[in-house]
Write a sequence for this structure.
């Protein structure tokens, strides 16, 4: 019985170490590939332009990253965006295709249809600060967040929509260095 438990523990430690090393070994080539595949920093649909903006592109370790969502009605008529719950927007931080942080993780939202009314020519801003904490593994509980490593990170902003789940998406990149 004890040998089985020891064997299982060794296997789990081995797997956790292998996953940690594989994400630590990720090279800049993967980040460059990610940048080439995602080319738009904003999206426009139905006279709505959605942008995600940071106050700068390069940050030091542990320096807060200020993120702004900018939603602009570029048309001549009022527009209403309907979301399935009170989560009107979200953002995800990726490094080499792995999710390191998601703003809505661990938060609860009322299951009430929410409408965002935007007048013609109006711009709406949502501002957030990411403290550079992220999950080591996607399956880990949120309490295990820690300081992310230096490198290039992709911040993806999302506005969910009733009809097709995600209608507006934009992204930007930030570099974190020592």
């Amino acid at each position: 019985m004890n040998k089985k438990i020891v064997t299982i523990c060794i296997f789990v430690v081995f797997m956790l170490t292998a996953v940690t090393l594989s994400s630590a070994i990720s090279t800049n080539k993967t980040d460059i590939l990610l940048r080439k595949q995602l080319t738009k920093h904003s999206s426009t649909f139905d006279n709505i332009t959605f942008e995600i903006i940071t106050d700068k592109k390069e940050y030091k370790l542990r320096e807060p990253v200020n993120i702004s969502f900018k939603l602009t009605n570029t048309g001549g008529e009022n527009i209403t965006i309907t979301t399935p719950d009170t989560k009107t927007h979200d953002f995800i931080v990726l490094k080499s295709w792995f999710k390191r942080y998601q703003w809505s993780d661990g938060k609860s939202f009322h299951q009430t249809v929410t409408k965002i009314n935007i007048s013609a020519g109006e711009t709406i801003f949502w501002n957030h600060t990411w403290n550079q904490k992220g999950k080591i593994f996607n399956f880990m509980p949120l309490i295990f967040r820690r300081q992310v490593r230096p490198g290039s990170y992709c911040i993806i902003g999302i506005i969910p929509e009733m009809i097709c789940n995600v209608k507006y998406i934009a992204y930007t990149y930030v570099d974190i260095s020592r």
